[in-house]
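From the methods appendix. Each design record in this collection lists the tokenized structure first, followed by the designed amino acid sequence. Records were kept in a plain field format so they could be parsed without special tools. The example shown here is representative of the layout used throughout.

RECORD:
FOLD TOKENS (247 positions):
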């Protein structure tokens, strides 16, 4: 998978050189490129924002730098020249490039969405700052490809970078080969729609607390049943909204 990130803080993503995503980059499983939005400004101050039409506090990110930055990526990731030379060449995906903008006004990011995004050959993330990005950027690129505003949750961050980091981690770990043991992806919170069961490891007793005896029984049927019951109990207690509708 190729991932492009557009941001005014490219140094923010240097942390993606370590851990799982870092290894995936070194092995070529993920081709991640970070682009500085300011490289696509043309004024002396490299300005990327301006006052909002209609008044109001804060600043809005100007459309021109975003348009140039995204065009530059699309030209390289989706070689338009090739398409005009050989129009039957498929684009990277039939539905065209996927642009994701983190936003508190976006659709909620979920494990199901992470699984869908992990199937994309290319993702382009646009990190907004300030009061957001001029709406016409979303409208313009929605015509050529797919634009999705995605939210991590109902709170406000100062910009999209932290959200993009979280999404890249959630999506990246689902790409085949990134996580050593794919089995470990199966029994996790939200994979089956429920929260995961509690986990234990050695020692069997610790500060007067014993591991639940069923886990030491070797009875795999009883262990599976106990784990399922723990999932349902924990989900009902912490996230009743995730419980399947009572039939
Ligand atoms: N919650 C957010 N606040 C600002 C930017 C992005 C956000 N998000 O959740 O993706």
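DESIGN:
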């Amino acid at each position: 998978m190729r991932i492009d990130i557009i941001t005014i803080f490219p140094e923010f993503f240097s942390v993606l050189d370590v851990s799982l995503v870092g290894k995936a980059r070194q092995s070529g499983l993920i081709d991640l490129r970070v682009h500085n939005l300011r490289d696509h400004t043309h004024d002396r101050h490299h300005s990327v924002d301006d006052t909002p039409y209609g008044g109001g506090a804060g600043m809005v990110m100007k459309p021109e730098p975003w348009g140039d930055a995204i065009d530059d990526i699309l030209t390289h990731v989706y070689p338009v020249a090739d398409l005009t030379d050989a129009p039957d060449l498929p684009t990277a995906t039939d539905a065209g490039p996927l642009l994701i903008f983190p936003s508190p006004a976006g659709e909620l990011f979920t494990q199901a969405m992470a699984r869908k995004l992990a199937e994309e050959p290319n993702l382009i993330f646009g990190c907004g700052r300030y009061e957001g990005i001029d709406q016409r950027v979303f409208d313009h690129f929605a015509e050529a490809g797919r634009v999705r505003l995605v939210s991590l949750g109902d709170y406000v961050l100062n910009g999209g970078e932290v959200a993009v980091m979280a999404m890249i981690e959630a999506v990246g770990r689902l790409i085949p080969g990134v996580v050593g043991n794919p089995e470990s992806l199966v029994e996790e919170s939200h994979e089956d729609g429920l929260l995961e069961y509690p986990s234990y490891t050695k020692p069997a007793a610790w500060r007067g607390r014993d591991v639940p005896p069923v886990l030491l029984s070797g009875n795999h049927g009883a262990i599976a049943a106990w784990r399922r019951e723990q999932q349902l109990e924990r989900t009902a207690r912490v996230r009743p909204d995730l419980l399947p509708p009572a039939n």
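APPENDIX NOTE: The radius of gyration is 22 Å.
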